[in-house]
Hints:
The protein is built from 8 helices and 8 strands. The protein is an alpha+beta fold. It folds into 2 domains: 8-92, Up-down Bundle (Chorismate Mutase Domain, subunit A), CATH 1.20.59.10; 113-258, 2,3-Dihydroxybiphenyl 1,2-Dioxygenase, domain 1. The protein has an 8-stranded mixed β-sheet. The protein is globular. The termini are far apart.
Amino acid sequence: MLAVTIDPRLTELRSxxxxxxxxxxxxxxxRIVVCEEVARVKExxxxxxxxxxxxREVIGQRRQWAIDSGADPDFVEQVLRTVLAETHRIEVAGxxxxxxxxxxxxxxxxxxxxxxxxxRIDHVVVAVPDLASALERFTQHxxxxxxxxxxxxxxxxxxxAGGVAVVLVSPEAGPAVARxxxxxxxxxxxxxxxxxxxxxxxxxxxxxxPAPDMTPLVVDAAGHEQFFTLRDPATGVQFGFISRTGHRxxxxxxxxxxxxxxPPVA
Length: 266
């Protein structure tokens, strides 16, 4: 077997990347420490955890820093939203009285309230008539792998590829799922959007005219806040909004089934 000769320039560049990544991790760790201090200060005041004006200011300023540095501002914003979601999780942990501190939408011409707090697509839920066949399709034909879930329930499984998570739900999960598939057929059930604060997101949607039909806000055993819009009969579109502000756990099958109307496992 022929030995592979690595260009010394590549070795040097990789070493630089390793050094930059080490510095990046150190900076992120330092930022987390500062955010923990912020959380302690807020605990002794009436300052709300989520402050939309501050979020907009941070994102807008960082986008400008990206432009000034020659970086893609969309990429930098995506990274910052991930960081903001984690720091918000830290601030909210153990503090459940911050459901909707600011119901006002943004000024005219500025980003919407949802646009302010939305971070990424957390996962999508797909209704399937046969779970085994769907799993085979995703894993054997599309290259996904089985993902761990925080709880286990018959008729539900999760698959991942990279950072993309898909929850598969079959009639075996419960009668509400079976009714949905019988009425609407298999396919995408809902898209779950990760938001900094689900209570704020729900209040922002409720302030719209007309406001979408929504479920109540629920908090699961791990501390995740979540609500859903009801299925739009005109488009078939349904959204979930989840704030992972509690313990760090993976996908939970009960969370995915709430949108179908299935009760959690006792």
